[in-house]
Amino acid sequence: MNEIRPASAAADTATSRPNNLEAYWMPFTDNRYFKQHPRMVARGEGMSYFTPEGREVIDGTAGLWCCNAGHGRREITEAIQRQAAVLDYAPNFQLGHPIAFEAAARIAEITPEGLDRVFFTNSGSESGDTALKIALAYHRARGEAQRTRLVGRERGYHGVGFGGMSVGGIGGNRKQFGALLPYTDHLPSTHLPGQHAFTRGQPEHGAHLADVLENLVALHGADTIAAVMVEPVAGSTGVLVPPVGYLQRLRELCTKHGILLIFDEVITGFGRLGTNFGAERLGVIPDIMTMAKGLTNAAVPMGAVAASNDVYDTVVNSAPNGIELFHGYTYSGHPLAAAAALATLDLHRAEDLPGRARAIEPAWQEAAHSLRDAPNVTDIRDFGLIAAVELAARPGKPGERGQNVFRRCFDNGVLVRVTGDIIALSPPLIIEKAHVDRIFGTLTEAIRAEAG
User: Fold this and answer.
1) Contact yes or no for 413/435 (Cβ under 8 A)
2) DSSP class per residue in 311-375
3) Average pLDDT over every residue of 209-227
4) 110-146 b/e with 16+ CB inside 10 Å = b?
5) Please, which residues bridge with residue 389 across strands?
6) 11-72+352-449, what's its fold?
7) Cβ–Cβ contacts within 10 Å for residue 46, how many?
8) 71 SS3 class
9) Taking the domains of the chain in order of start, what are their residue ranges?
10) Helix (H) or strand (E) holding 91
11) How far apart are CA 452 and CA 450, in angstroms?
């Protein structure tokens, strides 16, 4: 096993203590509670975070599903440092720099067959909106500009841009913002609690849920729908695993009706399911695929969209001379992000992180399902190195039990993620059996402590 070498770093500067919590408006956070009861991490190394006081917290979530190679990887740090000394920034509009092209080529080596054209963004949210815009541009380029409808899925998450929110299906992410994009619709969630509870891996029942796309075609007309966007495994909503055959059926229907299929692989990419991408594990190739998070091990923000050669050729070759796609970001293909991506891809290959995920998946699954008889556990779901433990809500207080479990776990040295009363887990792919035991042991104790 390759040694996990932390960056020498910065334990001196990284453990500084803030003296003012008021200026920072924190994302997806109960700001009022946090600023009265702050929980901080100041340093990362291997499988762990460390608080400003030096207390170790095992990372059961790979940050936010993103630090797949663990924390403090010297190889990535040094690549960023070298690049910063050579070229800190260069514009990508009508100008290029070599490392962005190298990073795109390396990504294309591991994407599913035919998805060889890579457009760089800076986050999963930007990747989601970019993929939707590419889909609309594709249909317009092929003479079907009336295809403007975008279809997502209930409980889907595709970031927080207006496109991703509109196609996404998590009510709490939408209700504050009024009207979103017009001409969107949604497939039903793939989760059937009465039939799927405590399934190990993919549920056997539920492929028929993809057939609802035929209903949307009948309602709106096939020639009005541009794309269907789904996560291979819905992560942020609480780990919803697709039924056997569901994605295959969705692929068949999209092909039948000339609709582009977009996979949001922001979470499932780069080894999380024991393969480079979820498409590989699940045996379905989309037309467009989004990615971010594990692309740079989260060391520098970066996202990307991989499009099929047909999509790229149609948009580019059908355009008049000049700019073919009026879209992009100031930091697309940023030199430091590209350097981080190349170093991360080197680590994934050298250490076979997808292979390590596959090897420990049985122990991970067994540990997750060992919580079945813990108090208030209503469901357990897992696939690859992802798991969710769903808890019954306290009457009249939805989310309270989940939040309290999160806080207890952190205070006892394990970081988990919570969505309402669902505890989600997605550790770095360098995890070992001792870490698995520690994560689920601490989680069990926290759930029991919140039994009342």
Assistant:
1) no
2) HHHHHHHTSPSS-S-----TTTT-HHHHHHHHHHHHHHHHHTHHHHHHHHHHHHHHHHHTTTTST
3) 97
4) bbbeebbbbbbbbbbbbbbbbbbbbbbbbbbbeeeee
5) 380, 423
6) Aspartate Aminotransferase, domain 1 (3.90.1150)
7) 18
8) strand
9) 11-72+352-449, 77-351
10) none
11) 6
Scanning 399-432, the segments in alpha helix (DSSP H) are: 400-411
pLDDT digits (tens, 9 = 90+) for 317-352: 999 999 999 999 999 999 999 999 999 999 999 999
| pLDDT tens per residue, range 137-173 | 999 999 999 999 999 999 999 999 999 999 999 999 9
Place of tokens 């897992």: 382
One fold for 11-72+352-449 and 77-351: no
Token match 């939040």: residue? 403
> Distance (Å, rounded) from C-alpha 244 to C-alpha 229?
18
Q: Let me know: does 447 contact 391? Beta carbons within 8 Å.
A: yes
Name residue 169's amino acid: G
Token digits of residue 166: 């509109």
For residue 445, what are its two tokens? 């104790």
Which of 344, 260, 351 lies closest to 302 in space, CA to CA? 344
Q: Is 43 left (phi over 0), alpha (psi -120 to 50) or beta?
A: beta
Nearest alpha-carbon partner for 131 in 109, 104, 113, 152: 152
Element (H, E) at 339: helix 335-351
Between CA 339 and CA 100 the distance in angstroms is 8
CA distances 355 to 110, 277, 350, 431, Å, are: 14, 12, 11, 12
- Structure tokens given for 215: 């209903």
What is the CATH code for 77-351? 3.40.640.10
Q: What is the pTM of this model?
A: 0.95
Give the 3-state secondary structure of residue 12: helix
How large is the greatest C-alpha to C-alpha distance in the chain, in angstroms?
68
